[in-house]
Amino acid sequence: MGVGVAALFVMHWMVAFWVPTEASMGVVQRIFYIHVPAAWTTFLAFGISAVASAAYLWLRDERADAAAAAAAEGGLVFGAVMLTSGPLWARIAWGTYWEWEPRLTLTLLLWFTYLGYFLVRSSVADRRKGRRLAAVVAVAGSLNIPLIHVSVNWFRSLHPGAVVIKPDGPTLHPDMLTTLLTSAAGFACLFLGLLCFRYRAGLAAEGAGRAETDGEGAAQ
Amino acid sequence: MAQLVVAPSALFAQAEAGQGAVRPYIHVYVAYGIAWLLVLMWAWRISRMTKRAAANAPGPQREVPDSGR
Q1: Cβ of B11 under 8 Å from any chain A Cβ?
Q2: How far is CA A5 from CA A173, B29, B54, in A?
Q3: Does ipTM come in above 0.90?
Q4: Which one of A65, A203, B2, B45 is CB 3.0 to 4.6 Å from A56, fit for a cystine?
Q5: Do A209 and B56 touch (CB under 8 A)?
Q6: In this predicted model, what pLDDT tens digit does every residue of A168-191 receive, in sequence order?
């Protein structure tokens, strides 16, 4: 996590003093250096949640469920970063905060799907059943992620296409690419560090809750 | 003074242009600020969860030694 924070400090310096200003959009394009890494981190988080959820469904191991919940929570946080930074950029670039176009709509749907993950998890009286249902939501929701990536190519989209992850390689100014990758590394390390802490906190809370229940049972 | 009376629209346009130059910076600062706020809020939530779990954790089980009687 420390590496992530350090990388983000370096990124801020690069954005403020080093990276060149984009010719057509000007200063507001600098939101790119948090918007895109936040998006990538969101997809990483929800991907981890989906894999952990699948493991929970298969193995019924509470640790997998704790990992899935921790990753989903991180995905919601970084997803919120993406969904707030994007409209702030769009207002200047497109003249509007939001457009109901494919990529934006699918991304918002993804975010609400994982919000639904927590709602399902907590709304069912039988805790184990709630967790299994939530795991299904997480796995199904993750199918949206590759769709979001290709949506700009498959559908008529206002959102710019990929400039890094594309078949013929990145088509970005080298300094911009360096700044972007520094930011992405920082975001990823920060997320993974916080994920570890959140996972441990979730397991500890689970253990404390179980001990309390056992204690109550013994007292009765 | 005459300029203010005769061409207020020009002054208004100048003010608008000034705002137009500042507005992208505001959007950039707000975007970065919101990003940090959200991440720090998550970190704070994790910290609270950890403290609460530690406070509710069962104490160490003490084994009473067998006196042998």
Answers
A1: no
A2: 25, 18, 26
A3: no
A4: A65
A5: yes
A6: 666 778 888 899 999 999 999 999
